[in-house]
What does this fold into?
Amino acid sequence: MSDNSPSNEEVLRQYWEATITGNIPLLRPIIADDAVFHYPGQHYLSGDYHGVEEVCGLYETVTSLGQELFDGKLRALASTPDGSYDAVVLSYRIKVVAGKWLPGRATGLLRVGGGKIHEYWLFEWDQQMINDIWWASAPKLFARQKRYGKIVASLPRIALGATRTMKRAFGGYTAPTEPH
It folds into this structure.
């Protein structure tokens, strides 16, 4: 790390600020050209995202569904003794319908160097809940993208995700761990 590069902690705090506020211009300079972000799950956003454009594209998609839908907190930051990896613990709430929020937790393992994120593995503590929420939101995003055939092809997953999400929202779902 050069003398004027931000510390890993500063990079991670900037990453978190950028992602919870949807500030892609704040995110862009801390993503390495060789970055790989591993986005978990079995939904339409799951997969690996390479480089600045793909990673920022992922976050543009995520935040395009509504900034007021997500409320998050950075709970913990830790580094390996040699500084090769950093870990974060996050808690959040996702608004699924008016007035109904679902709590969640996630852990991230990152490789940060030279003031940039080179690799990120995200681990959701309730991946099925996240899969369901993403599938429930699919019609809004696919319609915006004019991918109407994708809506039709995904109807079974969309219906199941929406049903499970509403059951959680109105059935007293409890997060795997607290606090938010």
User: Anything to note?
Assistant: The longest strand covers residues 100-113. The CA atoms of residues 57 and 94 lie 20 Å apart.
